[in-house]
Amino acid sequence: MRILVIGGSDAGISAALRARECDPASTVTMLVADAYPNFSICGIPYRLSGEVADWPDLAHRTTAEIVATGIDLRIDHTATAIDPARKTVTAVTPDSEVELEYDRLVIGTGAVPLLPPIAGLDALGPADGVHLLHTMDEARALDDDLRARDARRVVIIGAGYIGIEMAEALTNRGIGATVLERFDGVLPRTLDQQLADEISAELESHGVEVHCGTTVTEVRRDAGNLTVVAAEAKWAADAVLVVSGVAPNSALAATTGVRVDKRGAIVVDRQMRTNVPDVWAAGDCVHTHHALLDEPTYLPLGTTAHKQGRVAGENAAGGQKEFAGIVGTQVVRVFDRVVAATGLREVEAAGYSPLTVQTTADDHKRYYPGATPIQIRLTGDRDTGRLLGAQLVGTHGAEIAKRVDTYAVALQNGLSVEQLLDLDLSYTPPLGSPWDATQLAAQGWLAAR
Amino acid sequence: MRILVIGGSDAGISAALRARECDPASTVTMLVADAYPNFSICGIPYRLSGEVADWPDLAHRTTAEIVATGIDLRIDHTATAIDPARKTVTAVTPDSEVELEYDRLVIGTGAVPLLPPIAGLDALGPADGVHLLHTMDEARALDDDLRARDARRVVIIGAGYIGIEMAEALTNRGIGATVLERFDGVLPRTLDQQLADEISAELESHGVEVHCGTTVTEVRRDAGNLTVVAAEAKWAADAVLVVSGVAPNSALAATTGVRVDKRGAIVVDRQMRTNVPDVWAAGDCVHTHHALLDEPTYLPLGTTAHKQGRVAGENAAGGQKEFAGIVGTQVVRVFDRVVAATGLREVEAAGYSPLTVQTTADDHKRYYPGATPIQIRLTGDRDTGRLLGAQLVGTHGAEIAKRVDTYAVALQNGLSVEQLLDLDLSYTPPLGSPWDATQLAAQGWLAAR
């Protein structure tokens, strides 16, 4: 069996590895568009901050390790055409074009950065100090450019994960960061306003300038100076970083007859199978089954890409595995605080009668030194009592990342808020409470219902 | 409705508070045998270490806070007789005897320390430097005694939680600690030998002497000197701490016709109801429903006592709530490491075909500074694939306490080891991995099955 995988990031490598594992007799070829197979894109801000010493450190696996698994790795191979009738993929390399045959194909082409409708952006690029940040090449270009310009101030357009992580990274590097966000709070896809304000305050306390509810209308370059313009103000910058989200990279698939949804995400079934025979897809290029929603959603995350890729690879190798679906679990560290969320917020809970209650509870018994408050916004269904989602903000060290996981597992198993009180969670005074903070939030919700 | 609660620790206070909450018209009286209602017994080692500044800090709630909830609190009231026919409880105070009537009774008398069969122990007490450590009075007596003797070396008999926590507490206080354990490893009810050895090493690296597989045969006092004797050696000590586990404190209940099991634990149904009409029981004095075992077990823990007390209180007030059962989740910090466990170990998994696989995985992406390895022993059923239990050892700060909770929730929901891979857990490079360590352990188990 010849299995061909387009893409070598999280979904692609997971599919390739799993296919090899399930069918060691298969030939698995993996096409990677750049020279960075299986790199941790999520790690880019930590390399740019200087916390990670060198670019190759970001590789989940080295090229040698990938080759050792028996995968036929082709770097610098950009797929340009799929012929599902002949079962071939055409790819270009820096100096040639090749055609590859497949029996089974897995598409893991990822996402592309969104370019918001801002005047001037189209015409400006890295040479002008205006950067996107999605690939390793873009990251290295930004790094070089910041050094070349001896940048003192960078304006970041977009306060999602990457925007916030980059604000911290630049600050750690001694560069001033200004974050502009068109929604009313930072991390607008993750947090309600009440908690978003906490994170804005954290950023500001470390010297980051944050302006929410600010729609950038123009980026212009005059005599070597960059200016970012919104209705209420303008900001001078040595460099501008545009991190306003991503869209599925599905153009190649779509032109081949693979069905995509209105967002451009490839439509797959629970086996990660597309409408085209013998073609699977996974990762940031596909829509995603959400355990709490009737309709698929689009939420590109590395964790999901790994899981979907694994399912696609297993099935391409002859399996019948189903992707269990997500509940949208996320976490980000912001200086000394950690933000985590899972499930639905009220604004996302279409079809439910959501009620959200905010509670503050200590991470561990207050009598033991170092206890810190965790703010938890719990959303449940008023009618059925079902848990719908949770947002947490606490200090780094307060086990926020793994506390959100308790809620995530509860959500995936359809628990009610009241059933959270039945969970047999761990306790010792330096690390928790007899009723964990996650359960005290449930008690708060039940009292307010 | 007159609800009477015997006991003011975790189970008693939880029952009393919940009864008041469910039926604000009820009269709830709580008898507390000493002067310390609702104190955190689990916090005693941290007060003795000096980390917690003062004894009253250990109160979960102050007396004033308890009284403010409307509970009729009676401190220094030791219940001495229950008359289920007349529905009365007799209690003695330092200077009198009182009889109280009830409509509904909740027994939360807790546990008593086990005295191991060691020659000499019967005759020795705090005045001789030989201490138990279960009540606040015992804790304060130990504290005073260590100071009075200017103790330099304490021998601890028993390497369960309290023994280990006290070894750390004494070390922090500058007192040498020697731990003697008759089983082959420390924390013998929690950890397999492989991980227990890690914890012995951690203790030893901080100067604690640890001797496992050592059965103490005698404690003797000659001319003011204490000696602890085992077959292979003897140890001189300024004080001896006997922390060899506890047994249900059920004598009062048993003499009243309340049924107890062979361990002496009060027999209750899932509603925490005893065989005697209008009498419920909860906490360290009862046996406990275990979600993975056909038979009730005895595992006295504060978390369980809180949950059972809440159920008993709700039902005493007219409810029909069921206790969901435990999976045995536990955590303890040992100097710079954290030990956590949940579910069953192989030796406990009667009726299953257990397979245990040990994996080591980083707490977060290795490229980000400060990653530390977590050792995880995962036990699953070889035939069905069902998850049965997990033991974790990692560094303090690696979110071990809340990682075990992921397994706990999975166990309570009957997940298989393979389904752990479906869990949508949080990830950001400084705090996790795309496949969390808990999931990498599952992959390790599946590969070895």
UniProtKB/TrEMBL annotation, chains A, B:
Keywords noted in UniProt: FAD, Flavoprotein, Oxidoreductase, Redox-active center
Molecular function per GO: oxidoreductase activity
Domain FAD/NAD(P)-binding residues, every copy: 1-309
Domain of life: Bacteria
Cofactor: FAD
InterPro entries: FAD-bd_OxRdtase, FAD/NAD-bd_sf, FAD/NAD-binding_dom, FAD/NAD-linked_Rdtase_dimer_sf, Pyr_nucl-diS_OxRdtase_dimer
Residue ranges of every copy of the Pyridine nucleotide-disulphide oxidoreductase dimerisation domain listed in the record: 334-432
Family: Belongs to the class-III pyridine nucleotide-disulfide oxidoreductase family.
Protein name per UniProt: CoA-disulfide reductase
